[in-house]
Amino acid sequence: MSAGVHLTRLALTDFRSYAAADVTLEPGVTTFTGPNGQGKTNLVEAAHYVATFASHRVATDAPLIRQGAERAILRAGIHSAGRDSLVEIEINAGRANRVRLNRMPAPRPREVIGALRCVLFAPEDLAIVKGDPDQRRRYLDDLLVASRPRFAGVRSDYDRVLRQRNALLKSAKTRGGVPPSAMEVWDDHLVAAGAELTAARLRLVSELEPLVARCYSAVSGTERDTSVQYRVSASRQTGAEDDVPGGPAGSAQADPASLATLLRRALAVRRRAELERGISLVGPHRDELELQIGGLPARGYASHGESWSLALALRLTAYQLLRSDGEDPVLILDDVFAELDSERRDRLADLVGDADQVLVTAAVAGDVPGGLSGARYTVAGSVISRV
Length: 387
Ligand SMILES: Nc1ncnc2c1ncn2[C@@H]1O[C@H](COP(=O)(O)OP(=O)(O)O)[C@@H](O)[C@H]1O
Ligand SMILES: [Mg+2]
Fold this sequence. Notes:
Layout: E1 6-15, E2 18-24, E3 28-33, H1 40-52, E4 71-80, E5 83-92, E6 98-101, E7 104-105, E8 118-121, H2 126-130, H3 133-147, H4 151-175, H5 180-220, E9 226-231, H6 233-237, H7 256-277, E10 288-293, E11 296-297, H8 304-324, E12 330-334, H9 342-352, E13 357-362, E14 374-380, E15 383-386
Parallel strand pairs: 3-13, 3-14, 8-12, 12-13
Antiparallel strand pairs: 1-2, 1-4, 4-5, 5-6, 6-7, 9-10, 10-11, 14-15
Bound molecules: adenosine-5'-diphosphate (ADP) and magnesium ion.
Magnesium ion binds at residues 40-41, 334-335.
């Protein structure tokens, strides 16, 4: 049998609560069980970090380094496209991380993103449905980068432009003005990066929509309609909602050129407010991914169980989308089963049982459906032992 994509090994040094751990992994399902606070999430966080160079729990790297240690080191063996590779990451607090691919330094760590693709589902994901819009934008952008790694650059360009433009607006506010030519430069950057990011998100949402509906039915066992729509804030700001993709009509494709025109118009409309408030009010950082169940906004209306099903459906959608354009991503289910009733547990197990590799964590082994059988480990005091 030619095995699909999977982590063959994961070794941690001074990562989170682990002084040292080294696990050999196989394709199929692997389950890690143990009481709370023992290091289960820390372990799968390490696997996710190897795929994305970011933690799903914290925005900075410092908490990832074991207390008292100088740096953390992750080593991951990855089997992909019929080949084995070794990714090594040295995580340094407050200084650039060092990455090696097959023992050769990778000058740009971004190039190694995509060596492993991974979809992680964790209790925190409820915030995609219930939380602020930035949670939903992050869901979209993470998926965008996972499916097309070049968007890592587009995303970070946009973030940088936004930071610098905000700094300029803020100083304009305190100093009572800014040279128009300086503002123009940052407007241009914002429009260029913003249009590209918005176009990519719109394209992604049109691919997602049918999958979310199917995954929601499959997870929840109901036929309730879900809808996923991307709202371009600049359409609202310019009163162009009726004729611009991303407005209420919603699902049409948008090309970067017309989105750039739209952003320029919105910048003109909001110019005075931006200067007054000292902050950028136009661009994809103000957009919303609107989720609905049964015709009502999920946020603020959906029940706890519905919100869970939708969060799960969004992650499964990510999994299927990545799967359809290449190899299977590694699927990580961190502490998910405890939150689900037994029917939804079994349905989820059916949906993911044939994935190339699934890493499951649970406090209680009995919460993991019997259908998900495979290698079993216990985690106690950050020591991982084969059962
Ligand atoms: N940088 C760190 N250094 C030392 N311990 C840490 C660090 N980060 C987290 N921990 C510890 O890891 C434990 C949580 O581990 P976690 O994997 O989240 O548990 P669980 O098994 O419940 O998923 C906590 O006791 C926390 O104090
Ligand atoms: Mg945990």
